[in-house]
Amino acid sequence: MSGNLAKNADAIVIASGWQPSIARAEFSALVDSANTSQFIHERVLICDQDSATKIAQRSALISETLYPANHSLYTDLEKHVELVISWCKEHLENTGQTLAVRANKIGKKVEGWST
Asked: For 22-60, what is each residue's pLDDT tens digit?
């Protein structure tokens, strides 16, 4: 999907703390310059698994590491629901069990979404 920023083989690292710029500087110092990484938010870095592991082991300002991870640009609620359903159909076997999907908002509230 063209809106995806991260491939499933990538990791997402989320910073904590009052000063996101400090976490950003710390993460940048820990990520190998040869590896491609991208900040998609002042608190969110997409990087490879090795960089995420290094950050998790050495960072004082890490909140969460997600691997494997996927991220897509926000378009609208219906398209995100379709994206999740499509992923589930492709990767999960329907055995009648339930599945919980956790959405996490960082930053400004998206119009039409509850907080």
From this structure: 988 888 888 877 677 888 888 888 888 888 888 889 888
Show the domain range for 59: 11-66
Nearest Cα residue to 28 out of 68, 58, 6: 58
Q: Looking at 1-115, which runs of residues are DSSP E strands?
A: 11-15, 38-41, 44-47, 62-66
pTM listed for this prediction: 0.63
Give the total number of structural domains in the chain: 1
Check if the beta carbon of residue 72 is closer than 8 Å to that of residue 82.
no
CA 26 to CA 15: how far, in whole Å? 10
